[in-house]
Amino acid sequence: MKLNIALLAGDGIGPEVIDQAVKVCDAVAKKFNHDLNWQPALTGAAAIDAVGEPYPDETHEICVNADAVLFGAIGHPRFDNDPSAKVRPEQGLLKMRQKLGLFANVRPTFTFPSLIDKSPLKRERIEGTDLLILRELTGGVYFGERGRKDDGNTAFDTMTYTRAEIQRLAKKGFEIAMTRSKRLCCVDKANVLESSRLWRETVQAMEKDYPEVEVSYEFVDAVAMRLVQWPSDYDVMITANLFGDILTDEASVISGSMGLMPSSSIGEKARLYEPIHGSYPQAAGKDIANPLATVLSAAMLFEDFGLTEEAKEIRRVVNKSLAEGIVTEDLADGAKAYKTSEVGDWLAASI
Ligand code: IPM
Ligand code: MN
């Protein structure tokens, strides 16, 4: 298969972890006879510095015309403490999600047998966890009307959802649930929010189209608690943009390191793959960041193109590296810590 992949390394540790994913993908392509054509493009603070814009039109052109986008991370501390900054790297990410129509963000959480004791949660609580949070990504409070009034002394951000937005996300949720354990949990705040009541009503109306799927409805605050109490109770969850943002960070600690969890963002046409960790500026340029979340995001990419064996091969070598202790410092636990690039080289050579 020939695939054109836009490569958006972005900021902080983005370029380093992306480099490792490219090595691994190239090794897979060689082994399985695929032709990968990488198309690097600017985004984030790196793009602001170069052209004054975090998601330039040239980058969008490359992404729209590519079969998929592999994305590193976005964000730079020099913008974080400057509320007056007019352009911010994160705006690039939001603009990209919106312009590419990436409405469904797929964030799986699973445990690795060799790392189970690295989790801050007890073994018996997390063993067998394999859940997937499907976060709505182009609507809700992230994209609602916002502003200031009262001479700047009142600020508002509005959470708006249309039935159609909920339906297309829920449809994905039902479809994914059908390929897994056929359990779907709609996470909302319907006891308070009108938009959540529309979520519930819409999902309830869709239940009859998927008679095999067992649907439950839970409030987001209760889920925040139960997710760390009994994560293995959950399978597929669907939720609004902001709730999903918060719950997926929470869920990422279950596996033991935020550096492990991959994600995909899916639109009608576009597909983007990215680690869920951020740009981790303290580690930038030091060759110490964990590249596995990005490498596993590349496995999701192969899988979505029907290249299941290729995805399996990536997961096999990742598991092997963890079992053999070829890991970066976040997982080394007093033993030898390998460099980001060494882990990438080891994975590519093991394929
Ligand atoms: C994420 C990030 C982004 C978000 C930020 C960087 C805008 O936290 O992808 O989860 O809030 O969606
Ligand atoms: Mn987030």
* Helix count from the secondary structure assignment: 14
Highest CATH level, the class of the largest domain: Alpha Beta
Helix content: 40-55%
Could you say which overall geometry the principal axes of the C-alpha atoms support?
globular
SS-derived structural category: alpha/beta
CATH homologous superfamily grouping of the largest domain: Isopropylmalate Dehydrogenase
Which topology of the largest domain does CATH recognise?
A: Isopropylmalate Dehydrogenase
Total separate domains: 2
Q: Compute the gyration radius: what is it? A: 20 Å
**CATH architecture classification of the largest domain:** 3-Layer(aba) Sandwich
Order of helices and strands: EHEHHEHHEHEEEHEHEHEHEEHHHH
- Main β-sheet, spatial strand arrangement: 2-1-3-12-11-4-5-10-8-9
> Gap between N and C termini, in Å?
18 Å
Largest sheet: 10 strands, mixed
Q: What's the overall average pLDDT, rounded?
A: 96
DSSP strand count: 12
> Which regions contain 5 or more consecutive residues with pLDDT less than 50?
none
Q: Ligands in the structure?
A: 3-isopropylmalic acid, manganese (II) ion
| Percent of sequence in beta strands | 15-25%
EC number: 1.1.1.85
Catalytic activity: (2R,3S)-3-isopropylmalate + NAD(+) = 4-methyl-2-oxopentanoate + CO2 + NADH
Pathway: Amino-acid biosynthesis; L-leucine biosynthesis; L-leucine from 3-methyl-2-oxobutanoate: step 3/4
Subunit structure: Homodimer.
